[in-house]
Write a structure and sequence with these properties.
Distance between the termini: 57 Å
CATH architecture: Beta Barrel
Shape: globular
CATH topology: OB fold (Dihydrolipoamide Acetyltransferase, E2P)
Number of helices: 3
Low-confidence stretches: 1-18
Radius of gyration: 18 Å
Mean pLDDT: 87
Strand content: 35-45%
């Protein structure tokens, strides 16, 4: 019995070390916690080491196509942990990097680096990637593999599925939250 438990524990530890767990935030909470909410298109990214050479950060430039909360310029820079520099990759579960041309609704706040960049609110929760059009409606999703959510009421940790909804519904919920 002891060997079985130790074996199970040894299998589980690597999973726990790479997992990211969040407390789920609804659209309204994301809106309140964000200084900016924008619809934007990624135009390019660069990655670099921090000054201590301990973490890689990726900086993605976005062209803002619509501002839903706050005031921004036509282009913004979003900073995220992780990326690749000189054949070394740092990956963080729950961080989705963008490719040029991808469009998203981003819930943002000033970066703690105080360098003029912005960070996504709630990790992947504030990154609603535009997923395509069906029946004349554009759909967005902030779902992300490799991440988990903690449901406080039940005390459970489950796979983070995020939210998938029509862009119009997301925009309406943001607008209502901003007006409160």
């Amino acid at each position: 019995m002891k060997r079985w438990f130790v074996g199970l524990l040894l299998l589980a530890v690597p999973l726990l070390l790479v997992a990211t767990t969040v407390v789920p935030m609804g659209v309204e909470a994301l809106t309140r916690a964000s200084s900016h909410v924008v619809e934007a298109r990624a135009t390019g990214s660069t990655s670099q080491w921090n000054s201590e050479h301990t973490f890689i950060f990726t900086y993605t430039r976005f062209e803002v196509t619509r501002t839903l909360k706050g005031q921004t310029s036509n282009t913004i820079m979003v900073r995220q942990i992780g990326g690749t520099v000189e054949r070394i990759t740092q990956k963080v579960a729950g961080v989705r990097h963008w490719s040029p041309g991808e469009e998203a609704v981003l819930f943002l706040q000033p970066s703690p680096a105080a360098d003029g960049t912005l960070v996504v609110t709630g990790l992947m929760q504030g990154n609603f990637l535009m997923r395509g059009t069906r029946a004349g409606h554009t759909y967005v999703s902030n779902g992300m593999p490799e991440a988990f959510e903690y449901q406080a009421a039940a005390g459970d940790v489950t796979s983070y599925r995020g939210n998938t909804m029509r862009l119009e519904e997301l925009e309406s919920r943001i607008q209502k939250a901003v007006e409160k």
